[in-house]
Write a structure and sequence with these properties.
The chain has a 24-stranded mixed beta sheet that branches. By secondary structure, the chain is mainly β. It contains three helices and 24 strands.
């Protein structure tokens, strides 16, 4: 008996499907949509689909052509092959893993074994594709290379991509069970990469090479990163040198790290180019060589971050940095900063020390003259007027005016009483 299903308004099939029912089976053929062809049989006895061919060719781009062949037992085994060339956007099964995808890929994949956990073999080859993974905040452009499927292992074969002006190269493999990662041995090497923090206050350009290795439940992320150029612009909380006035507390930005795993860390970070703090306290040029261990959620940082160059701005004046350092004294808290700077005014040397955790910094001032240390009032007077209080009084006496002396006293007292 032959059964023909035409195009009707009651079903959304623009083409035609024909069914031929025989004892123990039904054969289905036809072209349900433009560019497609179906030739398959279902056997009732062993609940098996025998797919002689399910074929699709894009009418607008004939080079996009996929063919599916094989067999499938409902709740049993699968032996299926899909091959051809297509626009990756046509592969609906990519949606759970990728937000956006475009470009042509070649594919030749077989699935054999239990239908609930088949064993894949074959390859997917990229040709200048664009991918935006759901699990990573990256836009991978000009994606080239192949993913090779060898049973429970997925190889990355000469996979490369661009991210803005940077280049990425992937290598290694991922073991999986039912398409869920079970073991990582994946390397990523990047040049000219860029990183911008969620709040926009940390901007880095860097080269690096990292590797994720180990059991998927407890892998290790290790490697090296060389900072080519970096800027940190978040303001520091500062306790005023003469009044203890603290700047407004900054709103913390929620960590939006996309990684669902919490790998152990063994990373080294150093800078080969400029690394600058530029914010409300000044410009501080850094030299860094640190090691990050612990885990992604609880990193432990050690090593050295030092400075011997830059400017500290205070009360309208700029102080030249002579030395300083950053330490990671208490893990999971803000770093500790200590910077020494100085400025000469006439015969006086004014010293500034900026110290404390960067969310609670203190700034101290002192000054010396050829005759010894200056009092705090004289330090403030030097900063505001370029002369000590006694020098200002003497100048006022010589000019016969009392107004400058009064102005000095009020201004100095105002700073000291902050």
């Amino acid at each position: 008996m032959d059964l023909k299903i035409p195009n009707t308004n009651s079903i959304s099939i623009p083409g035609t499907i024909e069914g031929k029912i025989s004892p123990g089976s039904v054969k289905i053929t036809g072209s349900p949509v433009e560019g497609s062809h179906i030739n398959t049989t279902y056997r009732f006895g062993d609940k098996r689909w025998l797919i002689e061919k399910i074929e699709w060719q894009d009418p607008s781009s004939p080079e996009n052509h996929l063919v599916l062949k094989g067999s499938l037992i409902s709740g049993g085994t699968i032996d299926m092959k899909i091959s051809g060339t297509t626009d990756i956007a046509k592969l609906f099964f990519m949606s759970p893993f990728v937000k956006t995808y475009s470009g042509i890929i070649d594919t030749d994949i077989t699935l054999r074994g239990a239908s609930t956990n088949p064993t894949p073999h074959g390859f997917i080859t990229f040709h200048n594709n664009t991918l935006v993974p759901r699990s990573l905040p990256l836009v991978l452009e000009n994606l080239e290379g192949s993913i090779k499927l060898d049973g429970a292992r997925i190889y990355l074969d000469k996979v490369s991509a661009k991210i803005e002006d940077g280049n990425l190269n992937f290598s290694g493999y991922i073991d999986h069970s039912n398409f869920k990662p079970s073991y990582f041995d994946v390397g990523v090497a990047g040049t000219g990469m860029r990183y911008l923090a969620n709040d926009g206050t940390l901007n880095l350009e860097f080269d690096g090479s990292i590797k994720l290795e180990g059991n998927a439940r407890d892998p290790t992320l290790k490697g090296n990163m060389a900072i080519l150029d970096g800027r940190y612009t978040k303001d520091f909380n500062l306790i005023d040198a003469f009044g203890g006035k603290k700047s407004e507390k900054r709103r913390k930005v929620k960590d939006e790290s996309p990684l669902s795993i919490n790998p152990k860390l063994n990373l080294r970070v150093l800078n080969t180019g400029d690394l600058l703090i530029r914010n409300n306290v000044g410009d501080i040029w850094l030299t860094t060589d640190i090691v990050v261990k612990g885990t992604k959620d609880k990193p432990i940082v050690s090593g050295t971050v030092s400075t011997q160059e830059g400017k500290i701005h205070y009360l309208g004046s700029s102080f030249d940095i002579t030395r300083g350092f950053v330490e990671f004294r208490e893990q999971y808290k803000e770093p500790y900063l200590e910077v020494y700077a100085e400025k000469e005014i006439n015969v006086y040397n004014i010293n500034l020390i900026l110290h404390g955790y960067i969310d609670n910094l203190a700034l101290d001032l002192s000054a010396t003259s050829p005759s010894g240390m200056l009092e705090k009032r004289d330090v403030v007077s030097l900063m505001l007027f370029g002369a000590t209080e006694q020098e200002r009084i003497a100048q006022a006496a010589q000019s016969g005016s009392k107004l400058p002396t009064s102005i000095v006293a009020q201004s100095v007292a105002g700073v000291l009483e902050k």
